[in-house]
Structure to design on (77 residues):
């Protein structure tokens, strides 16, 4: 089975698995009314460690980009 990341927007958690078992559960933060979180199935296009946001100048330990226009999934930790 392939690696999988699922974001539960109602609970604000990210669930990650590598196979049949859930391996990780993290708190996450999604968009707001002005910047809504896109819903759907996505593939990670690239990963960067560490990364600094060009827009907000914020350091992120990890960033996984799931669109070609640059929206990242980020994690601090």
């Amino acid at each position: 089975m392939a690696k999988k990341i699922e974001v539960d927007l109602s609970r604000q958690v990210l669930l990650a698995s590598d196979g049949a078992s859930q391996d990780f559960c993290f708190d996450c933060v999604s968009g707001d009314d002005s910047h809504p979180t896109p819903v759907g199935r996505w593939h990670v296009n690239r990963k960067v460690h560490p990364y600094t946001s060009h827009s907000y100048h914020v350091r992120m330990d990890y960033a996984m980009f799931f669109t070609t226009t640059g929206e990242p999934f980020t994690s601090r930790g």
